[in-house]
């Protein structure tokens, strides 16, 4: 179940339109969400940040997604620290919102690409990780190292003189070979 939490009826209607009336519940206040018996840990609550305070987010009995008008790096870090699983723009494209919720349901963290890139650049390298470079092709290793530098798919394509589609194919292969689940994990590994 998807739970839209906002005092903005248009926001709740948009979430309901994206995920379907049957699979979406709308509530106006976070306090309405807490203590609801029908809320399961596998549910996803999409909270509209302009109508919340961080203390209201604590102890929500399901996976939490925060949407805001203008995503900010520092705010994203604060949200991650309090257990939020995804953070993004409240006006994101419906396909991106579906992708975000799908990622959260499978246990992943979802952030806008520019925030992921900044995060990659500020986190220290963990040299205790095993290396997978012997399993990757030379080109896949190049792509992985560029991801670790915080480069976007378009930037990687430009640097390596390949298409974005080819970068995505390399990324899929890298994830398959390494068992890493997302761009952030890959970047941390190769940083």
Structural overview:
Helix 1 links the parallel strand 1 and strand 2 (24-27). This protein has helices spanning 9-19, 30-33, 54-57, 73-81, 94-105, 113-122, 138-148, 153-160, 164-178, 183-190; strands spanning 2-5, 24-27, 44-48, 63-68, 86-89. 29% of the residues are buried. It has ten helices and five strands. It has two domains: 2-111, Rossmann fold, CATH 3.40.50.2300; 119-190, Arc Repressor Mutant, subunit A, CATH 1.10.10.10. The termini are far apart. Helices cover 48% and strands 12% of the residues. The protein is elongated and about 55 Å long. With 191 residues, the chain is of the alpha/beta class. Helix 6 (113-122) runs parallel beside helix 10 (183-190), helix 7 packs across helix 9 and helix 7 packs across helix 10. It has a five-stranded parallel β-sheet with strand order 2-1-3-4-5, with helices on both faces.
